[in-house]
Amino acid sequence: MSRATRLANAMPWRTRLFTAVYDRTGALDVEGLDLDQIRAARRRVAPLVPPVTWVTGAMPKGVRVTTSQLAARDGHCIPLRVYRPGHGTGPLPVVVFFHGGGWVLGNVRGYDALCGFLADAVEALVVSVDYRMAPEFVAPQAALDCVDALRWTRTGVAPLGGDPTRIAVSGDSAGGNLSAIVCQVVRDEGGPTISHQALLYPGVDGTQSFPSMRENAQAPILTKRQVDSFLATYTATSRLPLDHPLISPLWADDLSGLPPALVQTAQLDPLRDEGIAYAASLTAAGVAVRATTYVGVPHGFHSFPGVTLVGGQARAELVAELRAHLGVDATATSDG
């Protein structure tokens, strides 16, 4: 039995069926694509209607979606997608969200289900950032855009109904990478204060130093070959080495003084061990951390909770941590 078969067999049947269909689409394959093909892939968004919502979850009733924008340090206009819950009074806490896609693919509309869920369940204003991606913009441009988005919250969220004193960052995969980098840069450069960082199966080690990159090289959803392609595209003409903290936040010299963190990882993910290592390094540096590895799921499981056994649990943990650290309800508790 091949390793890929063993990995697939470790998943519940409905997860196995979904990932088999998804992998046939080649949705995360960028190797060999030209720029027009990459841009076309970025624009693809599944409609939030059944049966798609049986997999992704639906947009909660009452959540209002609007658009906004901010000016980056070079004057570029960065689009924002903003989610406001239909309940909650007064200025709302803010979750600044960075989408995944290997710094090459993905778009803010593709995260409507997850961001809408967070807005409703956390009772927060969720601001999803349409940062610039490779190959047009290589490292560290995505990270700089996300830092600029965080700085924008000082004045930008209040007119949208957000509270600039209660800010969290979150993101999945490459978005988790960008969330971790933002926390480090903002700490070093004087704010604004970030109350919490929620990192969902983050990629934090561009050097690929950990065993799960080899153990799960042929995993469903995300393979080592795809990780290689994303990194190669993102760093193609960059002058930064792969272990630079603006690419690999795990290798920063100092992790002390960073915001409390939730780090969620997936058992069947090439990125699993680097996420676990980042959580351990944060803890060693005195940062309050809650770290959970979810069994029987591959990379990306927050985007398809309806076909896993742990999607609801992972989302409940994410919401509880954000609510606790953003001061939404005094009864929420954290293990951090």
Which features does this protein show?
single chain, 336 residues, Rossmann fold, 8 strands
CATH class, named: Alpha Beta
Helix and strand pattern: HHHHEEEHEHEHEHHEHEH
CATH architecture: 3-Layer(aba) Sandwich
Please bin the fraction of helical residues. 25-40%
DSSP summary, beta strand count:
8
Secondary-structure class:
alpha/beta
Notes on the protein architecture:
Helix content is 36%, strand content 18%. It has 336 residues and is α/β, with parallel strands linked by helices. An eight-stranded mixed beta sheet has the order 1-2-4-3-5-6-7-8, with helices on both faces. Strand 7, helix 10 and strand 8 (289-298) form a beta-alpha-beta unit. Helix 6 (141-156) crosses helix 7 (174-189). Mean pLDDT is 95; it is low at 330-336.
Per-chain topology:
Elements: H1 3-9, H2 13-25, H3 35-43, H4 52-56, E1 64-71, E2 77-84, E3 92-98, H5 112-122, E4 125-129, H6 141-156, E5 162-172, H7 174-189, E6 196-200, H8 212-215, H9 224-235, E7 261-268, H10 272-284, E8 289-298, H11 311-325
Parallel strand pairs: 3-4, 3-5, 5-6, 6-7, 7-8
Antiparallel strand pairs: 1-2, 2-4
